[in-house]
C-alpha cells in the first residue's frame, strides 16, 4: 500500500474518530439521547448496530462511486489512449489517486477541446487561409508553451513555409524542404509524427531555427491525404512530453480539415469573383459595336487579368489566310504577327499554343468563330500562366470573339449604308449627315469650311464610246487622283453619276481653290491608254465577260493590261474595220463655295458650289471656279 494511500486512510479515520464523539456529545447536551452513564446493554447494542449500518451505507456509496469512476475511466479516450479496466481496489490503488488521474485526464480533454474549439472558431471566422494558419499556430504555441511554431504546406513537390509564430522571418534559416529532406520532409514522407528530445542528436535534422532542441514534428492530414507538416519547437531538451505529442497528433486531423475547408472556401470565393469579373468584362466588351474600341478593350482586359510583356490582337486576312492584320496591341513589341510558330499551330489545331523562350513564355490563343479561326490573341509573359489565369483568358476570348464578329458585321453594314459600292467613297446620303456635323463644328469654333463640286467633263461621251466598264474605271481613277492630293481631314463623296463633292474643313475658298487646281491639272495631264487595234467581230458570252473583267480588275496596271486592251477592243469593235484611239484625256469642272460666305447656310453652300461648277462648264470646262456674290450664274 502506498504512503499516499496510508496517509489518506489515516486521515479519514481520524476525522471519523473526532466527529463521532463530538456528534454524540452534542446529541446528549441537546437531550436527544440519554447520557452514557445511564446506558444499558440494549442501548450499546442499538448504538453499535447504528454505527455498523452507517458504515455499511458509507462503504456501499464509496464502492458504487469507485465502480462508476472506474467505468468512466475505462471509457475515457484522450487521443488514441484507452485506460485499462483491470484496476482493483484491493490492489491498494487509492480511490483518490484514481480521482486525480481522472481530473488530469479531464483537464487534458478540456485543453484539447479548447484547441478544437479554437480551430472550429477559426474555420468559420477567419477571412483567409493565411489568417487561419496564423491563428491555429499561435494557439498551439501558447497551449504547449513552445518557443516557436511553423506550418509547412505542400506546393508541387516541395514543402513551403506558410506560417510562423514567435519567430521572425529573418531568423529562419530554411523555409523550404523537399520531400524526405530533414525532419520535416521525413515526417511528410513517412506520414508519421516525431517527438524529438534533442534534434541536435538526430542525423536527419536540418537546422531551420538556431538553438532548437526539443521538437514535435507532426504531419497535417485530411483523411488519408497529407497536406503539410506542423512543427513546434523548444530551445530546452525534453521540453515536450508524450501527452503533448499525442495531443498535437490527435488534433492534426482537425487542423488538416480546417486547412482544406479554408482552401475550398478560398477557391469558391475566387471562382465567384472570377465569374463576377467575367460577367463585368463581357458587359464591357459587348457594349460597343466599334471595331477599334472593341479590340482595344479586349487587349486592356487581358492586361488587367495577367501581367504581360506584350499582347497583340490580329485578324486573319479574308483573301490571304497566311496574312494577319493587327488591329490592336499593347507593350514594347510593335512587330506584326507572322504565320509561323505558335500562331500557325493555334490556327491549325484550333486551341492554345505555348512555347518557352529565353525571355519567358509565348501563348497564341485562337479566336474561334463557327469552327473557323478568325484571329489570334498573341501574349508574351515573363512567367508561366496558371490554370486560373488560362481559364480567365478563355472566359474572355468567347465574348471578345462574338464582339469582334458583331463589330465587323456592323462595320460592313455601315459601309454598305454609307459608301459608294463602285468607288469606295462616301455616298450622297452620308454626305448630307456629315456636312451637318462639320457645319456645327466649324460654326462653334467660328471657323471656315469650303465645299467643292466636281463634274467630269463629257462623261456621257466616254460611256457611249467605250462602254460603261470604261466609265467606271474613269470614275475610280478620278477618285484615286483626288485621294493622293487631298489632306487627311478632307472627305470625298460621290454626289451622283459623274459628280463628286469634297468637304474641306477649316479651309477658306482661296486655299480650297489651290488644292482643286492641283487635282484638275493632274487629271487633265493623265493619258488613258486603251489600245489601237482592229479586231474581228466575235460573239462573247456573259461568262467570258466576267472572266475577262475579273482578270482585268486584279491587274495593277488596269489601263496598260493586254487583257484589258483586247477586251476593250472587242467591246468597241462592232464591225470588222472599226478602230479607236489608243489614248485620250479627261477633264473636270470644279465649283467651290465657302461656308462663311453663306453665313453657315448648308443649302446655300451646296447651291453655290453647284452654280460655280456650272460656271466652269460654261466657261469652257477644265476649270476651277470659286463662287462670289457678284457672279451672275443665271
UniProtKB/TrEMBL annotation:
Residue ranges annotated for the GGDEF domain, each copy included: 447-629
Q: Which InterPro entries match?
A: Diguanylate_Cyclase, GAF, GAF-like_dom_sf, GGDEF_dom, Nucleotide_cyclase, Rev_trsase/Diguanyl_cyclase
Judging by the UniProt lineage, the source's domain of life is Bacteria
Q: Which GO terms describe its cellular component?
A: plasma membrane
Could you list this entry's UniProt keywords, alphabetically sorted.
Answer: Membrane, Transmembrane, Transmembrane helix
Gene Ontology MF, one: diguanylate cyclase activity
Q: Which CDD domains match?
A: GGDEF
Where would you find the membrane-spanning parts of this chain? 9-32, 44-63
GO process terms (BP): cell adhesion involved in single-species biofilm formation; negative regulation of bacterial-type flagellum-dependent cell motility
Write down the NCBIfam families for this protein, in alphabetical order.
GGDEF
What is the protein's name according to its record? Diguanylate cyclase
What organism does this protein naturally occur in? Clostridium beijerinckii (Clostridium MP)
